[in-house]
Specification:
Chain C: Keywords: Membrane, Transmembrane, Transmembrane helix. The complex is a heterotetramer of chains A (about 375), B (about 400), C (about 70) and D (about 550). Chain A has helices spanning about 10-25, 30-35, 40-65, 70-75, 80-110, 120-135, 135-140, 145-160, 180-195, 210-240, 250-255, 270-300, 305-320, 325-335, 335-355; strands at about 260, 265. By secondary structure, chain A is mainly alpha-helical. Chain A has a single domain (about 10-360), classed as Hydantoin permease (Orthogonal Bundle), CATH 1.10.4160. A two-stranded antiparallel sheet of chain A has the order 1-2. In chain A, helix 3 packs across helix 9 and helix 9 (about 180-195) crosses helix 15 (about 335-355). Chain B has two domains: about 30-60 and about 70-230, no CATH class; about 245-390, Nutrient germinant receptor protein C, domain 3 (GMP Synthetase, Chain A, domain 3). Chain B has helices spanning about 5-20, 85-95, 115-120, 120-130, 145-150, 160-170, 185-190, 230-240, 305-330, 340-345, 350-355, 360-365; strands spanning about 35-45, 50-60, 75-85, 100-105, 110-115, 140-145, 200-205, 210-220, 225-230, 250-255, 255-275, 280-295, 365-375. The longest helix of chain B is centred in the C-terminal third of the chain and has 30 residues, at about 305-330. Residues about 65-70 of chain B have low confidence and may be disordered. Chain C is mainly α and about 70 residues long. Chain C has one domain (about 1-65). In chain C, helix 1 (about 1-20) packs antiparallel against helix 2. The model of chain C has no long low-confidence stretch (mean pLDDT about 80). Chain D has about 550 residues and is an alpha+beta fold. Chain D folds into three domains: about 40-155, no CATH class; about 185-300, no CATH class; about 310-475, no CATH class. Helices cover about 45% and strands about 10% of the residues of chain D. Chain D contains 16 helices and twelve strands. In chain D, the strands form three sheets. A five-stranded antiparallel β-sheet of chain D has the order 1-2-4-5-3, sandwiched between helices. Chain D is elongated and about 105 Å long. The termini of chain D are far apart. The chains are: A mainly alpha (about 375), B alpha/beta (about 400), C mainly alpha (about 70), D alpha+beta (about 550). The interface between B and C is small, with 11 and 9 residues.
Amino acid sequence: MRIDKTQISGVQFMFTVTCFIQSSSLLTAFLSEITKQDSWLAVLFGVVVCLPLIWLYRTLMVMFPDYNLIQILEEVYSPVVGKTIGISYAWFFITLTALNLSDMGSFSKLTLMKRTPDVVLIVTCMLVMAWAVKYGIRLITQYSALFVFVAFSILIASVLLVLNQINLQNFLPMFDLPAIKYVQGTHIISTIPFGELVTLLMITPNVKLTRRDTTKYLFGGFTLGWITVLVVISRDIAVLGNTLPIFTLPTLVTLRLVNLGEALSRVEILFAIMLIMLLFFKITFLYYVSVITVAQIMKTKSYRHLILAAGALITAYSFTLYPSPLHHAASAKEITPILWTFFEILMPLLTFVIAKLRKLPKEKEV
Amino acid sequence: MIPRRFRLLAVFLLSLLLMIFLSGCWDEHELHTLFIVTGVALDESDDPEKMDITVQIAKSQSKSSRSGDTEPQENYIILLKNKSGTMMEGLMEFNRDSSRTLMLNHNQVLLFGSSLAKQGIKDHIDLFMRDQDSRMEVLMIVVDGRGEEALAAKLSQDRISGMFISRVIRTMSSVSSYYQVRMLDFVSRLLEETTSPVVPIVTVTKKGKMEEIKITGMAVFKGDKMIDRLSNDETLGYIWAMGDVKHCNVVTSTEVGKAVFQIIKLDCKRDVKIRQDGGIGVKLSVNTTLSVGEISGFSETTSEELMPYLVKIAQEEIKRKIMNSFETARRLNADIYGFGTSVYRKYPKEWKSMKDSWDEIFSDIELNVQVKAHIPVTGQITQPLGMKEE
Amino acid sequence: MALVLISFTLIALIDLVPLIRKHLGHDIIAFLLLFILGLTIAILEVSGVEIPSIMLLLGDVLKSLGMSY
Amino acid sequence: MFFEFFVRKIKFLNHYRNYQQNNTENTIKERPIKIKKQLRENLDSLKTILGNSSDLKIHPFRFGANSSIAGVLVFIDGLVDNATLTNAILRPVQSWQFKDNSFPLEDELISVLEQEALCAGDVEIVKSLSDVISNCLSGNTALLVDGCVSGLIVNTKGWDKRNVTEPNSETVVRGPREGFTENLRTNTALIRRKISNKQLRVENMILGQKTRTNVCLMYLSGVVNMKVVEAVKYRIKHMDVDSILESGYIEEYIEDAPFSPFGTVGYSEKPDVVAARILEGRTAIVVDGTPFVLTAPMLFIESFQTAEDYYMRPLYASITRILRFIAYFITVFGPSIYIALTAFHQELLPTTLLFTIANAREGTPFPVFIEAMIMIFAFEILREGGIRLPRPVGQAVSIVGALIMGDAAVSAGLVGAPVVITVAITAVAGFLVPMQNESGSILRVVMMVLASFLGWYGISMGFLALLIHLGSLTSFGVPYFDGFAWTRNLQDSVVRMPLWTMVKRPKDIAQGDTTRTHFFIPPLRPYETQDEDDPEGERQ
């Protein structure tokens, strides 16, 4: 049973992956608070750790080309157990959406609309997103390339603009922090932006690709994504140096420092535009995935009727998640990576192993 | 599919809902309800618990009231003053007492009166970092005397002294970026713990009816308290030691003549070493390209001898200035160069034990300055007038 | 409060009514699940009840299990 | 009460939709009235059907040996060419002699007349009076003969028509200057002359129960996406319309998204543009009585492609095209960005610029939003005034409006100068993309409202919503915004690559023969001859 019948192409899939990672790369404060000037190393470690993980996702995609994650779970475990795990995934996706949504709200509040209540910002955004979700996965992914393009051009422009303020000394000393910090940093970077790619398993049926193309596009998108993360973090370290950890939005501060004559100052609006666009993409995607997951678990005929209700739930839920951004930051550093490990690493791995043991999928081999 | 009637109805009602939601306009503040702050000055107050806050506001000139060009200076700016314990309270009070809201986004300079700076400024700048309205690149300046005088100064060059100071500093920053101390730089220095921030110091002098604002050196901070100042000469030594200098003059005078060089490019490589005895040795290798700006005298030297001689005196002069300012720093026991950070970056392990006793180690630093100058350009003439042939 | 009620009523009008008309059992259950959950949270939120943060609760659980940085 | 109205309206729409779907093939057809033997009877019924219209001319005459046969010519005065009438019908018929003096009988007479007597190329035999009437109404002449149950229709169309002139709506510096006219046949001929290809199909149909307007569907079979042709035909067939006076009537009935600000059917007044679109695989709908020819499907990107883009060299053409995109962006977002910057996010303006704007705003009485609204409103008034008036007067209006009113408003301190500049730039930018002028004006106001509520955030949300809307639109099954999805048709989207790189026709639009040229052949240099080692030598 396919709930959403729209198809997306390989290139769109690739840029979706990139966009997805990019959108979290810009709120790097979680990481920079812990690994400081060595954050870029943590990113590299994270990439190394995640390569096998992405390979795992890719294998699951190739093994079950017509199934989404919930269907895989039901196939691999029995329907009942699968459904139970599926419900936990539904919670995971909804929580992810809500988390990103509250990020979006607090970011907009911090940078653009200081006195506007969160509710207004979030509800406005949610309505637009609900509209986007209604048209299915194709609509939003067809813009991924555009968003990636815009994000990259803004990124390159920003690097060029702060070139005169870069101080490479800021990267020193390397490997000065306790080892546990690197472990923690790597863990954060591999679960928060990279591991969230597990959501892609929900749109497998909408991507009709050959085995080779899946690998190619998945890793291509991932590479573009982590390069962005690396560039953003390195740029912030090089410009801000030891002040990096004290800011909640290092990238914003970096861009604020751009000052080439009086006319070319105050370009942080670029950052705001980029981040709103990317976050919009990511949340819409997650929103879509949440709705599809619920629809899949309940075996509904169409997912469209669930959009608004799910949206309302996510909106309400996002207000209860954290009492303050401080809690959010603390939890993102300490709690979320461990929690997400279950959904992003352990569960897919277990599924893969059991599927291999049970020699699934059976009839697909023919 | 949702039946058409419901969809239409829904879209209509949802947009209605949106309208209700949106009818707030919380963030709207029209320009004519705002005061654009161009400078803030903090000064010591007679009440020890409080400080004097002065804000300078650029007054917008309504078109209809722009009667003539010869308007009195007072009309271009508004100065608001009050006394309060913290910055936030002060701002609240300003907003309460004035017809418009203060907008700090465009604040150009943050001035500290020298007496306040001597008491420590850390607590006063927290708001400027925390508040989203103000920006990290606001320039920090210490005023010799009271900060409000600088804001009230009537200048011949610019109507708004806040803008004037920021422009002067930005021009100076093309010489060396160390003239431009943004709040970010200041905070960065503070966070380094061992490094002493230096902040440009300006002096307001009377000149007829008008006033003049000049940079008269650098204020040296220890922690967040100003302890002393570098003179303009010492400042030159300081910025040369920091490297990356452009368009700066080196004035030398010997018994035989005077020569002024212009620095085209000056780089300073810094190399820190831990000495045998546990102290620190710093080697500064200055590599500079100069051009001859002006030469007078030297009538006794031949033209072949002249160039090597000029190079020599330039090198000596640069070295002397650097050493000079270093001696001052050592005397003040203020690590204005950030040598501590260099050690930390190079020897992170050893640093841990040194950090606490950095003051003693700093006063014991062995500084070795090597200057290498090139003079490829002599200007449009090759020799000064009246030089000996051969 | 009124706004919350209005918007939830609207959502019900938009989506639930056609679902009931079409007698789509699964869809109705899924919808009601999300809807009631959302409505409860929203109403509690609006009426000022402190809803414990799930993330923080889970964090406490994890910490008591000794899994934390 | 308000809702009730709304619900009723929606109910009606629903009902109508159902009606349309059920009403597949029962268009009301008059029962044909046979031509009677008695000429008098025929004439009587003609007169009753047409009423005694003064332009209906019935010209009786006699011919044959001894003028023994009575006949009439029926035509509408003004629609027929009198010279043709005389030379092709009257003169030959009256001077015509039976060859063997045998008198042909009734129906035979008609075919003999058709084959031997008439000097006309386009003659048709009809048997019913309704055919006679409809033909007469479209400018033909009917020849009825006493005692015959059929009549002859001769093409004598010849009314006054405009010559082929340069179109006003799309002027070019370089490129053909001819434009369509109000005459259907002229228009199809103009297209046919551009594409003399055997695959060019022209399908005729008559639409509008009252106006009986001729409409032609033109496409290049083998290239066109037949699904689009079928969709166009299907939608046209299901139109229930009594009059068609302009192609806009049809457009409204067949477009995909009637409530969207974006039009999903293209139009043009220039044969070369329409020919180019047909060659890309589009379908053209030529309507009698208007010089505007519809083309479908239409993509968003089409609004930014002008005929001249392809006649100029690609580098400059690309630059102007990018300029057009920027202009469209400005025309939609210009005033809203101004509002957001001056009323919400002053921190984003450079300090000096802020002083300038603050000085200009000082003492103006209205909030920025109202100010901008007033100026936009004034501009729309001026534009509307300028368009409808005769040209010299129109110019006077724009001079008075733009120069005097604008200047006076600024110097009186009613509005600030920056807002006048913003609105002026916005307005001028809108003219760069005439096809999207309507959507531009609507969206501009929407964005302004959003900006006045939520500043940049509102604009961002508006922009994203706009993207979503554009992404969801289709034109006859082809994604409307597809040129911007960055993954296809890149040679001719944001930039225009050289013509020789456009090897393929646009995807989704063309079907079947999608290749324009078979090789990617850059221009040969003059000294380059066909050597043996020329890698592309075998293309000969």
